[in-house]
Amino acid sequence: MTSRDAAFLAEMGIGPLWSVRAASEAAADAVPEAVAAAPVVPAPAPAAALAPPPMPRQVAEPAAARTWTPPVVEPIPVPEQVDVSALDWDGLRQAVANCRHCNACSEGRKPVFGTGARQARWLVAAGTASVLDEQAGEPMTGDPGKLLDNMLLAAGMSRETDVYITSLVKCRPANRNGGDRAPTLDEVAACRPFLERERELCGASAILTLGQVAANGLLGKPLQEPLAGSRGATHRLGAVPMVATLHPGELLRRGADKALAWADLCRAKAANGQAG
Q1: For residue 159, is pLDDT > 90?
Q2: Are 275 and 240 in contact (CB under 8 A)?
Q3: Cβ density class 51-79: b for 16+ within 10 Å, e for less
């Protein structure tokens, strides 16, 4: 643009629309060059946050070793075994009532004493008393007792005049629910002296056992051993012959075995005759 054009535009009130390109471009170009020429100063890195000092490590002191001291157990006093060899009937009955030598009697059960002839030809021994026996206070009651009476009658005897009936274990062994259970060897051993004294007092010249517990207990065999191992022979309890037969309760369940029981009764009669 000439000066004349510029003057003309100025008169019209119009300012310059542009400036000289060369000067403006030179100025614009100079700025980036200056910027480019300036040294690049790296921005300071942000200050790192200071970490808290570590906590001191707590080391647990070793616990002192505990020494185990066994508790003091007071010995349970064991009642002294009473010598029953010189007792009469009343003394023997009292000794049985006071006995606490096995679990059966220590459970507070009512002892079942023998009954029958005080001067007898036979001593009949069952293994343990039943619930009915415990309630009645005498051995071999209920249907088994009735069958036993019939068996003795067939052999020419009765419990009132010829036979003394007792049980090897005097107190009925019971489980937690109050039902019958098999006796233990300790219970049999605790009661055996009572039966032996009963035999001496009644003077029986033969012993008839009813069931495997009575037979095995008196013969010193395992109580669980089948009765078949003791039947069919005449044994000895000291100088007294002993015959084993089935319990009347078993005969009520297996009527066919009554013939075996009759053979055993005949064997006991023969042994009793020989002993007499």
Answers
A1: yes
A2: yes
A3: eeeeeeeeeeeeeeeeeeeeeeeeeeeee
